[in-house]
């Protein structure tokens, strides 16, 4: 079974094997990676985490788990430019540095094994965590509690001062949504690193894991263009046109499609 198929098979389990699925995503980019070995490393980490958790009320254990990871030197990767390794889980286990989503996936797996209630929140711009029923979110990088005003300020940081916080921003998300976001992160990081073939793997996976948006199709169309694959570019431009509601952008997409149709390279 290839890494993509293994990833999807993990998601088909009940409950989904989220962390293992994310390791298979990493294996698409690192043929030397053995997910079973990474899971064994996680077993060792679990013992360290468990040993450091104090006897707290159940509602406080999730925050204590995140703070314990900090004590074990797991932190947000603040290197510039950010490299794809920040989103790859086996690299997170080795380097103890990663994106918020990567750290969240680690925390969710540890919480599952420890019987701690914890959920992922697909917040715009920065992935968050939450304890079911709590009145706050948790930053996966620090364990800091984020209340409504904190979330409002965070949203405006990423979307501008006019952005309005809504209940939809704070909904828990499922395993497929998390891995689709992970794939989008990797697509962007590989594009920034000028690795279009790697980015194309991520772009294809984005479309397999859930409904694709306008930007997903445009991103893959740009990769196909960079890789001189007009058939693939045309396919994604046509789908982007179906999803586009902006008249000016629709015109640009139509013109780009027309140029592809006029190209002798398309047959």
From TrEMBL:
Top-level taxon in the UniProt lineage: Bacteria
Sequence ranges assigned to domain Protein SirB1 N-terminal in this UniProt record: 37-183
Coiled-coil boundaries: none
InterPro entries linked to this entry: SirB1_N
Family of this protein: Belongs to the UPF0162 family.
PANTHER family hit by this protein: F-BOX ONLY PROTEIN 21, SI:DKEY-261L7.2
UniProt protein name: Tetratricopeptide repeat protein
């Amino acid at each position: 079974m290839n890494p993509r198929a293994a990833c999807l098979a993990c998601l088909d389990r009940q409950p989904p094997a989220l962390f293992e699925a994310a390791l298979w995503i990493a294996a698409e980019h690192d043929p030397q990676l053995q997910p079973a070995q990474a899971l064994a490393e996680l077993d060792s980490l679990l013992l360290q985490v468990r040993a450091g958790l104090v006897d707290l009320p159940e509602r406080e254990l999730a925050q204590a788990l995140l703070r314990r990871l900090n004590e074990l030197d797991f932190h947000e990767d603040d290197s510039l430019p950010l490299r794809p390794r920040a989103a790859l889980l086996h690299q997170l286990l080795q380097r103890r540095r990663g994106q918020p989503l990567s750290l969240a996936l680690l925390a969710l797996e540890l919480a599952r094994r420890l019987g701690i209630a914890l959920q992922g929140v697909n917040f715009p711009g920065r992935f968050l965590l939450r304890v079911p029923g709590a009145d706050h979110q948790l930053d996966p990088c620090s364990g800091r509690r984020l209340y409504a005003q904190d979330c409002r300020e965070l949203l405006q940081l990423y979307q501008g001062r006019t952005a309005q916080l809504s209940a939809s921003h704070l909904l828990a998300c499922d395993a497929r949504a998390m891995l689709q976001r992970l794939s989008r992160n990797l697509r962007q990081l590989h594009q920034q690193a000028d690795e279009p073939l790697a980015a194309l793997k991520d772009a294809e996976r984005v479309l397999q894991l859930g409904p694709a948006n306008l930007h997903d199709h445009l991103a893959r169309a740009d990769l196909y263009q960079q890789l001189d694959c007009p058939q693939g570019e045309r396919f994604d431009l046509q789908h982007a046109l179906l999803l586009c509601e902006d008249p000016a952008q629709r015109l640009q997409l139509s013109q780009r499609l027309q140029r592809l149709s006029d190209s002798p390279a398309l047959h």
